Amino acid sequence: MADDADVIVVGGGLAGLVAATEMADAGKRVIVVDQEGEQSLGGQAFWSFGGLFLVDSPEQRRLGVRDSHDLALQDWMGAAGFDRDDDHWPKRWAEAYVAFAAGEKRDWLRAMGHRIFPVVGWAERGGYDAMGHGNSVPRFHVTWGTGPGIVEPFERRAREAERNGRLTFRFRHRVDTLVMTNGAVEGVSGSVLEPDPIERGKSSSRKVVGDFTLRAQAVIVASGGIGGNHDLVRQNWPKRLGEPPKHMISGVPEHVDGRMIGITEAAGGRLINRDRMWHYVEGIRNWNPIWPQHGIRILPGPSSMWFDATGKRLPAPLFPGSDTLGQLHYIMSTGYDYSWFILTQSIIKKEFALSGSEQNPDLTGKSWRMTIKRATNKGAPAPVEAFKQNGADFIVRDNLQELVSAMNALSGDNLLKLDHITAQIEARDREITNPYVKDAQVMNIHNARRYIGDKLIRTAKPHRILDPDHGPLIAVKLNILTRKTLGGFETDLDSRVFGTNGQIIQGLYAAGEAAGFGGGGMHGYRSLEGTFLGGCLFSGRNAGRAAAKATG
Ligand SMILES: Cc1cc2nc3c(=O)[nH]c(=O)nc-3n(C[C@H](O)[C@H](O)[C@H](O)COP(=O)(O)OP(=O)(O)OC[C@H]3O[C@@H](n4cnc5c(N)ncnc54)[C@H](O)[C@@H]3O)c2cc1C
After folding, report:
1. What digits encode the pLDDT tens for the residues 440-459?
2. Minimum-distance ligand 1 atom for the alpha carbon of 532
3. What is the residue with the minimal CA distance to atom 7 of ligand 1?
4. How far is the CA of 482 from the centre of ligand 1 (A)?
5. Burial of 496 (0-12, 13-18, 19+ CB in 10 A)
6. What is the number of the ligand 1 atom nearest to the C-alpha of 225?
7. Which residue positions in the chain have pLDDT lower than 70?
8. Measured from the CA of 36, which atom of ligand 1 is nearest?
9. 67-80 tens-digit pLDDT
10. Which of 79, 125, 302, 454 has the fewest CB atoms within 10 Å, counting from its CB?
């Protein structure tokens, strides 16, 4: 039977778009199938903050940050903690990826018109020793234009290939099976879903109106992870993080359903490290939701005080922005699946950023005029103020007594004792007058302000939490927010998928989140952030280039 294309890509997210455009540019005929409508092209990346892990970039150097490949690799290995036999390919991918991030990544993107906001962010700061988890230096480079700005070059290339007849999109085509002959993949088949003009990101109809089969020499699975499917998240929840949370909110749209992972596994693909995932602990319920249970992650600066559900301050070094999974582990050990920030108006104004393109209209809209207000404005950015006013998890009061009483009312658990919270805040406040102190979080604040980027837009001047001049007081109830799948299909450096028998499955490739961003889990246990979009770029590019070569 004649092939419909040289290669079929399952998924029009970032990884799929990168793979497809690389193949089309190499002269191949490509079909991209996606269960969603055309309006959702770009998948999760569109919604993302557009943060990219880059090493020793001109942006870092301009800010006085001295970074290097060796320092980044040290940090990556400290974060990943590779310790399994299955980590052979993940580790090789990690090494290759760090070299990409320290090498051609920035120039490759720049040649396509991609640009970066000049202040580099400092995510996952760790707080252990030099070989432990965390970024030793700021490396989180925000795309000018956020998520849409990272999708744009690849969508542009894809549309051009479409016009040239090399690339065809089949939207509302949901793959249900991989077509196999003698152990090799020869295509996909599935259901045609009814057209649905629903807005991007909202749940679309699943009504089936037809079926399809498409044949090609190769299939690239770029179908994303499992974060939108809480049942799958709970099923794969690792024991080392305690019991799965009873209550979670979703940091991804519903189409991140993990269904294609099961389909690829059923076809013989070897899924590894399925118990490694990356969920956030600073999730807030979106007062203006787009997808079901829509939550937003706060990207916190270092100053908010963090309390567990019982009112105990989180132990060092679990300060805001230090160690996401360390915090998740601690919080789940308390027997409750939420925690609290207590902060001041001065802190929220300077330190709260919300992850997501729609929450950052200044950067997403590429407006310098609006962006500059981050440094000069009296209040917090408008989307943060909107959450403060409308968000179900925000409480604003003029004094601590009223704040704590409202916190107890909001959780309904009545676990917080005013005396206990007051004593901890007053103790911390006594540490604030000297620049050399013993409170590790206050030391962190001083350390952060030595970095010009943090001083400018991310770290409030040290002050007493109970100083009314910096008020009002704010409490935020923090939920667990699902996001990324760190495990995935085991692949070699050409993104070819291994079968359960340890042999490459002919014709089958995986990229992006479905491949654990490469190899089946190049992050190991933890991420340094900005590594997911970058993982889609790198694994999508490798898959596209390798499949183009292999299909002659
Ligand atoms: C709000 C938010 C902020 C983020 N911020 C950042 C950031 O700053 N930096 C960073 O590095 N990462 C960030 N991320 C993570 C990053 O965006 C994702 O990990 C990445 O975009 C995943 O891309 P993907 O192509 O692998 O999968 P997806 O984007 O999930 O795309 C997969 C596509 O496959 C389709 N599909 C699935 N199953 C089928 C099927 N059976 N048949 C047909 N089609 C199917 C889906 O409809 C979807 O379009 C963020 C994510 C979100 C949601």
Report:
1. 999 999 999 999 999 999 99
2. 11
3. 51
4. 13
5. buried
6. 30
7. none
8. 47
9. 999 999 999 999 99
10. 125
